[in-house]
Design brief:
The protein has 283 residues and is mainly alpha-helical. The protein has helices spanning 7-15, 18-43, 47-66, 71-88, 97-121, 129-135, 143-172, 174-179, 184-206, 211-225, 229-253, 259-275.
């Protein structure tokens, strides 16, 4: 029986490739963190912040490449730095849409300049780097990059879970949380730092243009399926992981389909299905 007709044989053949294993390990870790952080993004109505950080990730990586540095350094410095700046510019560590939009446009302009410089003066040695930043390169991650992704995702998850209770309180009612002694502004800063780190990591899996989908769609599905916060957090991470696994498998079976597109297509279809699910099915 051929691998095409035998799912077990096909899975064994797929996992026989080191680049697939690295992508699955890194993608799983990234998806867990993205689902958890994405839940709070949706709960706090800060999805536009993640959209802005996707363009910050693009700019940071390209600036680093233009300067001859590792793109990952630019990713993390730019996304975490701008995330904290957005917190500083808004009340209670949460910037409004005008601040986010202005920062979005300013950073994107720098990204266009960096792209122009990079493509004219530096692209001969790494012509695919700009495309990888935009659309992700999960198949290009080696063992060291996969380990780094797991460590960073683990740190994000641990901090997010430790912060979950006060963050939930502050997300539901900032005024009452502040009156009860919750350091709302500090909590907002810490959360934005987590969003920045998660955005930087997610860029490596699905790219700067598509990272918002992996952050928002699984959380959106989870929140339509359950009203219980901790259950929704876990469900968002599970859905994100399922999207990554399914996307990598589909991309492997159909090599012309980019893995980032396949991942986002799965979670987007899941969100569409959740939209038509009757409210009485929620638990």
């Amino acid at each position: 029986m051929t691998a095409a007709l035998d799912p077990i044989a096909g899975l064994h053949h797929m996992l026989g490739h080191a680049f697939i294993r690295h992508g699955l390990i890194a993608g799983t870790a990234i998806a867990v963190a993205a689902g958890l952080v994405g839940y709070f993004l949706v709960l706090r109505s800060q999805v536009f912040t993640a959209d802005a950080l996707s363009h910050v990730a693009f700019t940071g990586a390209l600036v680093a490449l233009t300067l001859g540095l590792d793109a990952r350094l630019g990713l993390f410095v730019a996304t975490i730095g701008i995330a904290l700046l957005l917190g500083a510019l808004g009340p209670h560590g949460r910037a409004d849409d005008v601040v986010i939009g202005s920062t979005f446009a300013w950073v994107l302009g720098i990204g266009v300049l960096a792209l122009s410089i990079f493509t004219t003066g530096h692209s001969t040695g790494n012509g695919a780097a700009g495309v990888n930043v935009l659309f992700g390169s999960i198949y290009g991650l080696d063992a060291a990059a996969a380990r780094t992704a797991v460590l960073i995702a683990a740190a994000v998850v641990v901090i997010a879970l430790a912060l979950a209770r006060p963050l939930l309180f502050a997300s539901i009612d900032e005024s009452v949380a502040a009156a009860r002694g919750v350091p709302v502004r500090l909590v907002g800063y810490l959360f934005l730092g987590l969003v920045g780190a998660t955005a930087a990591e997610t860029t490596q899996a699905v790219g700067a243009l598509l990272l918002l989908g992996l952050l928002a769609a699984p959380a959106g599905i989870a929140m339509r399926l359950t009203t219980r916060p901790y259950r929704a957090m876990a469900l968002a991470s599970v859905i994100a992981v399922g999207g990554v696994w399914g996307g990598l498998a589909f991309s492997y079976a159909a090599p012309r389909v980019p893995p980032s597109f396949a991942i986002l297509a799965i979670v987007t279809c899941g969100y569409g299905a959740a939209l038509v699910m009757p409210r009485r099915a929620r638990t």
